[in-house]
Amino acid sequence: MHYFIELANPLWLLGMLPLLITAAIVVAKVKKCIQYRYPLSSFLSAKKGNSGARYIQFFYILRCALLFLLALTSARPQLVDSQSPITVEGLDIMLALDFSGSMISQDTVGDPRSRIDVAKEEVKRFVQARTDDAIGLVVFGGDAVTRCPITHDKKMLITIIDETFVGDIVDPRETHLATALIAAANRLKQSRAKSKIIILLTDGHPSEGDMSAQMAIEVARALHIKIYTIGVGYDEPRTITHPLYGTVTVPETIDGALLRKIATDTNGAFFLAHNAQDMKKIYATIDELEKSHSTKPIFSHKYELGFVGIVFAIIIVCCEILISTYVWFGL
Fold it and tell me: Three-state SS for 279?
C-alpha cells in the first residue's frame, strides 16, 4: 500500500492563502499595541507586569494558525491509498442486449415504447439495484460489440445504455446471438469472482452468419459462466383474433429451444417476456441471485482528513478561551 495526501478542493486553499498572508502583513505593519499611561506604570514596570504585549502576540499567532487550519480543512485534505484492494460482495455480470431492427417493435397496445426502450429501462433498473456487482455491456445485431467493459461505475454504464440506439453501433439487419455470448464470455475470462453470469436478451432467431451456439456454450462452461436467457416474444406459434382478418396464426418470434438449451447447459435459466411487466418481473427474479465475495484492485482508496482539522481547530479555540480566562486575563 502506498499512501500520500492530496487536496480535493485545492482552489479553496489557493484562494484563501493570499488573503491570510495579506491580512498578516497588514496587521504586522500597521497595527500597534495600545499603550496607556497611569500612575502605577512605574510600579508595574519594576514588577515586570507590563508584558501584556507578549501575550497579545501569542494570541495573534494562535488565531492566524486557526485561520490557516480552517482554510486547509475547507480544501478537504485526503489520505490516499493508491494500491488498496477492497473486498466486495457481488457478481461479475455481462449484459448482452439485442439491438437488431426487430427490437423497435411494440408489444403492448397503448404503450408507445418499443421493445428496446422497455429493455433499456429495465436493464438500468437492474444495474442500479446491483450496487456491489461489476457489470459490463455487449450489444449485438449483425455483429457483437463491447459497449462497456466490466465496471463498478454504474453512472457511466447507465449513461452508455441511454446513449445506445438501434442502428448506431451494429448492423440491425441480423442477429448474431452466439457471437455476442462469446464476446461477453471473453470479458469475463479474467474475472476472479466466484460467480460470473451473462444475461442475454433477444427477440429473434440467430442469423445464418452467426457463430455456433454450441461453441458459445462450451466457452461459457469452460470459464464457469452461468447464462440467463430472456426471449422477448413467443417461442411457439399462436392464434390471435385480428380486427380485419379474423383468426390468424402468428409464427414464433424467438428460438425458444435454443435459448433453453443455452441456459440449461450453463446452469442458468430461460425466461419469456411477452410485455413490459414480464420483463420487469424477470429482471427482479435475476436480481435475487446468490452473491459471493471477491477481492478487486481499485485505483485509489481515499480517507477524508477534514475531521482532523476540525478537531484541532476546536482544540485551539478552547485553549485560547481557557488561557485568556484563567491564565493571562486582565493584561
Answer: helix
Q: In whole angstroms, give the CA distance from residue 1 to residue 128.
A: 31
pLDDT in tens, 96-106: 999 998 888 87
C-alpha cell at 101: 431492427
Contact 234, 250 (CB under 8 A): yes
**Cell reading at 316:** 485551539
Residues 6+ apart with CB under 8 A from 88: 132, 152, 293, 294, 295, 296
The answer to whether the beta carbons of residues 137 and 147 sit under 8 Å apart is: yes
- Say which DSSP state 255 is in: -
Residue where the block lists cell 446471438: 177
**pLDDT tens per residue across span 210-257:** 999 999 999 999 999 999 999 988 777 766 555 566 666 656 678 889
C-alpha cell at 252: 414464433
Do residues 229 and 270 touch, judged by C-beta distance below 8 A? yes
CA separation for the pair 94, 229 (Å, rounded):
12
Q: Residue 207 to residues 43, 110, 152, 211: CA-CA distances in angstroms? A: 108, 31, 33, 9
Write the CA distances from 14 to 17, 75, 86, 302, integer angstroms.
6, 9, 33, 22
Q: Which three cell numbers stand for residue 253?
A: 418470434
**Which residue numbers in the chain have pLDDT < 70?**
1-4, 8-9, 12-13, 23-24, 26-56, 81-90, 109, 238-252, 289-302, 325-331
Cα separation, 68 vs 74, in Å, equals: 10
Contact criterion met (CB below 8 Å) for 256 and 235: yes
CATH architecture of the domain with residue range 88-295: 3-Layer(aba) Sandwich (3.40)
Domain map of the chain by residue range? 3-82+300-326, 88-295
- Would you say 76 and 92 are in contact if contact means Cβ atoms under 8 Å apart? no
Q: Say if CB 258 and CB 214 are below 8 A apart.
A: no
